[in-house]
Amino acid sequence: MLSLVDLRRRIEAGTLTPEGAIRLSQEAILARDPVVRATVVTDPAPAVTDAGPLAGIAVGVKDIIDTAAMPTQMGSPIYEGWQPKTDAPIVMRLKALGAVVLAKTTTSPFASVDPTETTNPHDPGHTPGGSSAGSAAAVGAGMLPLALGTQTGGSVIRPASFCGCAAIKPSFRLLPTVGVKTFSWALDTLGLFGAGVGDVAHALALIAARPAIDLGGTPPGTPRVMVVTQDFAEAPAPEAKSALDRARQAAERAGALVRDFALPPEFAAAFESHGTIQDFEARQALAWEYAHHRDALSPRLGPQLDAAQGLDAAAYDDARRKAHRARRLLKTLFSDFDAILTYSAPGFAPRTLASTGDARFNRLWTLMGVPCVNVPVPGDGLPVGVQVIARFGGDGRALAVAAMIEGALER
User: Fold this and answer.
1) What is the distance between the alpha carbons of residues 304 and 162, in angstroms, rounded to a whole number?
2) Is the pTM of this model over 0.85?
3) What are the angstrom distances between the C-alpha of 396 and each of 16, 234, 286, 391, 401?
4) What are 219-278's pLDDT values in tens digits?
C-alpha cells in the first residue's frame, strides 16, 4: 500500500517530488483498477502544488461527496452526469492542505446496502464491503494513500476490515458533512482510509486542524482496554474471533491492562433502534428520489424505502430515547476504561459480489457517535481487522491505542 506518512517523509527529504508521488498513484490505478474497479472517474491532468502539508498526496473521494471538477453521481443512474457547482467543505479543506483530488470512488447508491462493481483487492471474487467500496478498495490495492468514505451503519470500518487497510470513523460531527448526500442526518459520518493507523491519524489531525490527534507514535501510557464481544449482534466467524484474540494479546504485550466487559442491556436496546432511526430519516432525506424516480432506485434500497414509509414519529422518538440512554451510560462507563476492543466485521469478506457484508458489529458505535478505528490484523488468507473505540471526542486516544496494538501485532 501507499503510505501517506512515508510519501510525505520522502517529499520532505527531497527524494520524491509531489508530482512524482501523484504519478505513483496514477500508475497504480492504471495497473490495478481494470480488475478492482474502485474509481468512477479520475482527473487526467491534476494540478499539483508544492505547498501544504499534504502536497503530493492523491485522494479518492466517495462519489456522494460534491466535487466541482468531477461529477458526483451518487452511485445511481438518477444522477448520471450530475456536476455540482462547488466542492464540499471537506474537499476544499483537502485542497487547502495541498492534496490532489485524483479520483471519485465507487459507492453503493446513495450510500445504501446495494453492492457496486468494485472487487476486493485481495481476491476479486470477494466483496470489498460497502457502501464506501471504492475508497477502501483503492487504498487496500495500493492505488491511493488516502480516501474519504462515509459511515451510517458500518460503511467505513467494515470495508477497511475486508480490504486490509486502516480507517477511522471519527467522532460525530468532527468533520463537516455539508455537501455530502444525506442518508441519515443523525448517523452519517465522514471517515478516512489509509495504509496504517499513523496515516489516518496524521490526515485527520491536519484536516480537523487538531494537532493533538496526531501523537506521532507517542505511547498512550498504560491504557485500560475492555474487550467487548457484542453478544446481542450474533456470533462472528472463527477468523474474527482469532483476530480479536491476537489483538488482545498484542495489547497486553504492549502494556495495556485488558479485561473482558459485557455491555449492559441498554446497549442491546440501542443496537435494535439503529434501523428505525436510519430508515425514518432516509425516507425524508431521499423523499425526492423516491417520489420521482422510485423505479430507478437500486434493488435493495427501493424496498427499504418502501418499508420505511410505514414508520411513524412515535417509533422514531422511542428509538432516539433508547440511543440517548445508551450514550449517557457509555459516557459514564468510559470513566472506568480508556478504550474498547471489539470486532470490525463478522469475518472475512464474503465470497460474493452480490452483497457488501453485514454491519452488525458497527451499527451500535455509529449510533453512539464515538470514534472507531480499524486495525488490520496480520494473518493467513483474506484480511480481517479489529475495532478500537474511545469516548466521544477521544479520537486521539482511539488512534493512540490502535497504533499501540498495530505496532505490537507487527512485532
Assistant:
1) 25
2) yes
3) 29, 30, 34, 10, 9
4) 668 999 999 999 999 999 999 999 999 999 999 999 999 999 999 999 999 999 999 999
With cell 496514477, the residue in question is 26
Q: Which residues form the domain of 277?
A: 1-411
- CATH number, domain of 257, equals 3.90.1300.10
For every residue of 184-234, DSSP letters joined together read: -TTT-EEEEEESSHHHHHHHHHHHTT-GGG--TT----S-EEEE---GGG-
The mean predicted confidence, pLDDT, of the chain is 97
Which pLDDT band holds residue 215 (cuts at 50, 70, 90)? confident
Residue 124 sits at φ, ψ, to 5 deg, of -65, -10
Number of domains in the chain: 1
112, amino acid identity: S
Please, are residues 213 and 396 in contact by the beta-carbon 8 Å criterion?
Answer: yes
Q: What is the pLDDT of residue 221?
A: 81
C-alpha cell belonging to residue 239: 477468523
